[in-house]
Amino acid sequence: MARRRLDTFSLSFLDIMSCGFGAVVLFYMIISATMAIRSDELNKNLSERADKLRVEASEGEDNLVELRNTLEETEKKIVEARGLSRRIIELIEDKQVELAEMEDDTVARQEHINKLKADLKALEEDSKRLSAASSQPEELGDRLRRIQGDGDRQYLTGVKVGGERVLVLLDASASMLDETIVNIIRRRNMDDAQKIRSPKWQRALRTVEWLVAQLPPGARFQIVRFSQTASPVLPDSAETWLEAADPEVVDRVIQGSRRLVPNGGTSLHNAFASVKTLTPRPDNIFLITDGLPTQGREPPRSRTVSGRARLRHFNNSLEELPGGIPVNVVLLPIEGDAQAATEFWRLAQATQGSFISPSRDWP
After folding, report:
1. CA of 99: how far to CAs of 92, 94, 151, 218, 245, in Å?
2. Quick one: three-class SS letters along the chain?
3. CA dihedral defined by 185, 188, 191, 197, rounded to 10 degrees?
4. Tens digit of each residue's pLDDT (9 = 90 or more) over 233-243
5. Exposure letters 192-206 (e unless 16+ CB within 10 A, then b)
6. What is the 3-state secondary structure (H, E, C) of 297-326?
7. 44-79 burial by CB neighbour count: b if 16+ within 10 A, else e?
8. What is the pLDDT of residues 261-300, one digit of tens each?
9. What are phi and psi of 342, to 5 degrees?
């Protein structure tokens, strides 16, 4: 019996191989199609993410530029703040020095005020004794006006209201509202009518009226009010002398002075400069004030004036005062200006005038 020969490359084997290869090809095609779909989706996602990152990068650049600008502005503000802090520190140090000087001046002024009060009390007692010793009332005589007061007292002893041309310089600054700094500030904020009624200012006006009443009938006079500037009480009488024998003129001057409202600083420089505008020059000056000046020709830049600065303004103002004219000082003292009494007394002595500080109830 003949054996059948086995052929490895028979048809059945080739069929199996073909089927297997076809399966591989089909599997590859399926995988390729699936990968293409996933690749498109992945590319789309990556593209969207890339666009989003571009937008974020652009916004980040804009924010970075804004932050850099903000940083520059902040650095500028820091530099300005440092400079301002240095100026503030310097200003504080200056104010501390001024405060120390003012405290020293205050102590000296208080001691001087206490001494002046004691001297004033002694003078009042002497005046009372002199008044009690007088048995006959003083007649009107050749006075131009009668001044009413308690007992017709004459506290301005030693003042000679004489001369052919008498100039009265009336301090109309804000300090004439009261004797204390606190009350001056309080009254300075009131209306004009209340300012005019201030007791200290009324004392100054009564002093002016008393002086005018003592003028000789043949004398001529002028009244100049001064604060930051200086001008006649009657504006239409600038650079001229008024007749003391004319009752109408005297009444106009007195009424004009009663309408004055104290305000502003004190420039004794401008007050003395007004003396030169009168022709001929006065032969007697009466200065009614309450303390050393707070400014020179022009207002000061600072709102506060130290005692040394006020003394300097006073000494400088004397350069404007013509020589050979007696200056009679009527001082209505203010709180915290202890040097005023000494300096005005020296001025009166140097010019052969008189210095007085009347009591509160005069005349």
Report:
1. 10, 9, 46, 52, 52
2. CCCCCCCCCCHHHHHHHHHHHHHHHHHHHHHHHHHHHHHHHHHHHHHHHHHHHHHHHHHHHHHHHHHHHHHHHHHHHHHHHHHHHHHHHHHHHHHHHHHHHHHHHHHHHHHHHHHHHHHHHHHHHHHHHHHHHCCCCCCCCCCCCCCCCHHHCCCCCCCCCCCCEEEEEEECCHHHHCCCHHHHHHHHCCCHHHHHCCHHHHHHHHHHHHHHHCCCCCCEEEEEEECCCEEECCHHHCCCCEECCCHHHHHHHHHHHHCCCCCCCCCHHHHHHHHHHCCCCCCEEEEEECCCCCCCCCCCCCCCCCHHHHHHHHHHHHHHCCCCCCEEEEECCCCCCCHHHHHHHHHHHHCCCCEECCCCCCC
3. 100
4. 998 888 899 99
5. eeebbebebbebbbb
6. CCCCCCCCCCHHHHHHHHHHHHHHCCCCCC
7. eeeeeeeeeeeeeeeeeeeeeeeeeeeeeeeeeeee
8. 999 999 999 999 999 999 899 999 999 999 999 988 887 7
9. -65, -45
Among residues 281, 132, 291, 133, which one has the least CA distance to residue 204? 291
Residue 327 in this model has a pLDDT that exceeds 90: yes
Is residue 154 within 8 Å of 143, Cβ to Cβ? no
